[in-house]
Structures
1.
Amino acid sequence: MANLTPELERERVKICKIAKEAGLDCFETIFELITYDQINQFAAYGGFPVRYPHWKFGMEYEHLSKSYEYGLSKIYEMVINTDPCYAYLMEGNAMMDQKLVMAHVYGHCDFFKNNIWFSKTDRKMMDQMANHATRIRRYVDRYGTETIENFIDVCLSLENLIDRFSPYVDRSIVPKQPEAGPQDTDFLLNVNRPYMRDYINPPAFVAEQKLKMQELAQRAQSTQHS
């Protein structure tokens, strides 16, 4: 599978079998063995090897690289929530580390597939990101690097304002409004803009018309009973 060594592939098969026997239900999981420099590059891109060009990815790469070189941090693995799941192992880790990481990855993949929080995930996001990257590069060629970079800066400034719970809100459910009889709305002028409602149909006018209609209804009832 991928570019795993024969030893790692044998361990992967064993670990996958144990995970299934333990009841884990995962998407197909593809492991790739990469260098520490590659894993820092992928981590800088948020775990995805194909992203649009932007200075923030280079800044994150420098941070991760220096942190690893100075012994302050180390990335043992990365796993992406896609179908199939892609997981990256770092070359140079001890065999015990790699086996623990593979077992850990299968736990992640089971969670990705079966947890409600990830149920709205686009499992083909890798392809979508590659398409976005191609589109941004096309815009860079057309409008120039600085223009596109400034635009992306503005977009990213709103990133922390996105409601992370919005995918779970069913916006098709509209609260049922009480049905109003024709006599309640006949006198109202048509309003296409909500902010113009009180201007076109002033509250005092509406109240006056409703009172008149109530009086007419009462007279009609009195006439029927007499």
2.
Amino acid sequence: MNAALEHADGLARCPWAKLDPLYIAYHDEEWGVPEFDDRALYEKLILDGFQAGLSWITILRKRENFRRAFDGFAPEKVARYTPKKVERLMQDAGIVRNRMKIEGAVLSARGWLEVMDKGPGFSRLLWDFVDGRPKINNFRSTRQIPAETAVSRKISKNLASRGFKFCGPTIVYAFMQAVGMVNDHLVTCHRHPAYAKLAKKR
């Protein structure tokens, strides 16, 4: 299914939201909303990294567990995680227990601190790649939506050079969609015009 899906409430939504109430709420209230908070952007990038090889609904269902396990995704705390803490996380059944991804979250937190301390700030760094305003796409089918773009490749390369992990071009593009750097709601989805208006206000 590639076109917007009409739901029982009469609203058309991107087909990936399906009929799961948690997914629908995420689609309607979060996905594509421009996010400019430095810490929130770190959290989302890390969760998108944990999603690699899995479905987003799997991560969404575990998100509160992740927040508990990772101290609310406070980079200042995550950056100081010891090997002993990593081992404890590997025993936590509430999260995705992948050692490379857990260790990657720690290294990315250190990269985040570096950007905040000596760079432009994490939000500024990311949003400057799209001139500070969301790019509005007008896709009619999910088949038209790319897996990565030239911009996501540039961001990926920049983040990797700063020590961030699990930030390949595809992960970065999914991240860009989620945090509203691009509006990839289908034009027939009821959220597309609302987010397009938000972008114009920037």
